[in-house]
Amino acid sequence: MASKKIRRHELILELVRERGGVSVGSLSEMLGVSMQTIRRDVDVLCDGKTLRRAHGRIELTAGHINTPFDQRAGTNLMGKRAIASVVASQIPNGATLFMSIGSTPLTVARALRYHKELTVITNNLSVAMALSEELSNRIILPGGELRLPDRDFVGEEVVSFFGRYRAEFAVFGTAGVAEDGRLLEFHEAEVRASEAMRLNAQRSILVIDGSKFGRLAPAAGAMISDVSEVICDVRPDPIFDPVVESVADRISFVGRTE
Fold first, then answer.
1. What is the DSSP string of 18-53?
2. CA torsion, ordered 196, 197, 203, 204, to nearest 10 deg
3. Residue 46's domain spans which residues?
4. For residue 258, is it within any domain?
5. pLDDT in tens, 139-194
6. Are residues 59 and 84 in the same domain?
7. Which residues 6+ apart lie within 8 Å of 100 measured at CB?
8. Is 200 helix (H, G, I), strand (E, B) or coil?
9. pLDDT tens digits, residue range 52-85?
10. Are strands 167-172 and 201-208 parallel, antiparallel or unpaired?
11. Going by fewer Cβ within 10 Å, which terminus of the chain is more open, N or C?
12. Considering the entire predicted model, what is its pTM?
């Protein structure tokens, strides 16, 4: 099988695992190939054990679905909590901050539960709910359609939403980090939303666990060196040493190493 086709199949599997289900049209747009090509890929991938077709979508089978976002949120809890604790210690009461979609930013939000008078601008409904118990907080959400099961808002409306505000901090994750240090997402709109947060904040904080280094995703965004600070749990594979060195004075590894 050609290397391009193999990589495309890997991306399709990653997208479906990430979101639980994706339409053929969305896959065609995100991967930059025809719908006919995607349908041929689906013929190969839908073996009935892990993936299946359903109403123009490719989905996880019943035995694998189990709310993918909740699965992600429950993985590497110790690493994510270590990251969240460090970030929360840097954000004072009364701060204004952007917070992105993703399970690690959600863990940060949970670590901020005792902070007061925060202004939180987010497209992550779970983040909003986690911080809504403190009545002194102000929480601002975009309009539009809520994507399930991730419980977030995505699309062009979200990009313009973040562009209308300014914040002291932007706390955001990424789908993957390429070998050249490029931040990757599954959709171009997610790239632009992260960029809007980063550019409109005084300080941008990328929160990722070590599994994101080398993880594939089709939409390329900023370089990791464009970020003010990177908080990660563990150091990645040595192949990423040049990437780490590019942010040597701005990256922290906060997880346990034993």
1. HHSEEEHHHHHHHHTS-HHHHHHHHHHH--SSSEEE
2. -100
3. 3-66
4. no
5. 999 988 887 767 888 878 898 999 999 999 999 999 899 999 999 988 888 899 99
6. no
7. 122, 123, 124, 170, 171, 172, 173, 193, 194, 197
8. coil
9. 887 777 877 655 444 455 555 556 678 899 999 9
10. parallel
11. C
12. 0.76
121 and 201 together in one domain: yes
Strands 229-232 and 182-185 come out as unpaired
Q: Is residue 16 part of a domain?
A: yes
**Domain of residue 216, CATH code:** 3.40.50.1360
> CA 251, CA 54: separation in Å to the nearest integer?
43
CATH number, domain at 36? 1.10.10.10
pLDDT digits (tens, 9 = 90+) for 180-190: 999 998 888 88
Whether 17 and 143 share a structural domain: no
Q: What are phi and psi of 34, to 5 degrees?
A: -70, 160
Structure tokens at 133: 């118990």
> Helices marked H in the chain — which ranges?
3-19, 24-31, 35-45, 68-73, 77-90, 103-111, 125-131, 156-163, 188-199, 241-246
Residues 86 and 189 in one domain: yes
Residue 9 and residue 131 share a domain: no
pLDDT of residue 140: 97
Same domain, 241 and 204: yes
